[in-house]
Amino acid sequence: MQITINPTLIKGTIHAPASKSVMQRACAAALLRNGITIIDNYGQSNDDKAAINIIQQLGAKVTYTDAQKLEITSDGLPKVSSFSMIDCAESGLSLRMFAPIAALLNTEVTFVGHGSLLKRPVHFIEAFLSGLGVTVFSNEGLLPLEIKGPLKPVNCNVDGSITSQLLTGILFAFGTSAKEDVSIEVDNLKSKPYIDLTLKVMEDFGMNVPVNDQYQRFIFKYKPSDSIVKKTLNYTIEGDWSSAAFFMVAGAIAGNVIIKGLDVFTTQADKKVLEALQDCGCRLSIQMEQIEVTKHELKAFHFDATDCPDLFPPLVALAAHCNGTSVIEGVHRLEHKESNRTLSLQAEFEKLGVHITIQDDKMIIVRQTKISEPLTLNGHNDHRIVMACAIAALVAKAPVAIDGIEAVNKSYPDFFRHLMSIQK
């Protein structure tokens, strides 16, 4: 599918969509909780739907009570039929998080996926689970991934340099199954705020939460499980900062935007977008109930996105309209996404007159020289590339067509509806 964005000023209010990072973790926690969980403001992106489907495949009962709530009933342990195919769609988090949880089973399960997930490596999952007594086979380091447990929670070491998402799954699995004190040593952990988010969800759901020893070791103290069915837990999914970041950038370069539904005290990594917005000189108002961003003369900024790589696409759109040369660090985190985002951002923003170079682990962005003729951009089947292109197109000199816009369904199905609602 294609859409054409005409240059325009914007003004309006957006309610941030539910955080898929929180939603997917809440699904895992609800599966591992003995009782009923009612989730309010549940996510409806493709990644959220993948997580809901997976917990059903692993034994949870899911009922939609109304437009904003769903009820999850579980006995606290994953279970499957004699053989089960776990479909992660295109969700990398679901694959990496639910693989250790499914490994708790003494039953073979096969994880499959679609689209870009078929190209994303699983060798590190295979290597780690094999060390915990799990039988694991992959397709030469790619999906499908066959797993047969049961996983044995023992002192172990995990490499956190590629992603923190596998550690999230391990923490959930150990928090459910450890029958003695056990520790997880972690090397080179990236995206620490996402682990903070995992621990927060575990705490909210009453799980056994490990001691965090400076992100280098996580220590579980054995606690006998509570066999009594727990009371119903009501849990609300907070707004998503990674999605809201695109509209904050839109306000900074093209008018005025108010975003509601965000938790200013969140552990979400992408809250750091506020630092970049403050540094570049836009008008920024941060209140408990809303964030307001208004266009102003923008200056170049320097930002470290190592722990929040999903901010690269919106921040490139921001840097493209700042006076001078901006620098974003953490390029090594961009390769294994829905696309290789380094190459995708370079290719599409070059068409917009933006010069992007890579130096060591830094992306260097020189302000856009606006192109006066109509353009067509490629979304690279990557939701965040599509959204970054759409935001940048607001301040182009001519209409910009974007191919592959259906990719936004992965994280933000209402993105274009919201964008059109604030155009003047």
From TrEMBL:
Q: Do you know which Pfam families this protein is assigned to? A: EPSP_synthase
At the top level, the lineage of the source is Bacteria
Q: Which GO terms describe its molecular function?
A: 3-phosphoshikimate 1-carboxyvinyltransferase activity
The protein's annotated catalytic reaction(s) are: 3-phosphoshikimate + phosphoenolpyruvate = 5-O-(1-carboxyvinyl)-3-phosphoshikimate + phosphate
| Annotated binding of phosphoenolpyruvate, by residue | 20, 92, 120, 165, 341, 384, 410
Residues annotated to bind 3-phosphoshikimate: 20-21, 25, 163-165, 191, 310, 337
Gene Ontology biological process: amino acid biosynthetic process; aromatic amino acid family biosynthetic process; chorismate biosynthetic process
Give its E.C. classification number.
2.5.1.19
Please give the SUPFAM superfamilies that the UniProt record associates with this protein.
Answer: EPT/RTPC-like
The enzyme's main class, written as a single word, is transferase
UniProt keywords (A-Z) are: Amino-acid biosynthesis, Aromatic amino acid biosynthesis, Cytoplasm, Transferase
Q: Where is the Enolpyruvate transferase domain?
A: 8-419
| Family annotation (Gene3D superfamilies) | Enolpyruvate transferase domain
> What does the subunit section of this Swiss-Prot or TrEMBL entry state?
Monomer.
Q: Which PANTHER family match?
A: AROM/DEHYDROQUINATE SYNTHASE (PTHR21090), PENTAFUNCTIONAL AROM POLYPEPTIDE (PTHR21090:SF5)
Please state what the protein is called. Answer: 3-phosphoshikimate 1-carboxyvinyltransferase
Q: Which organism is it from?
A: Taibaiella lutea
Its gene name is: aroA
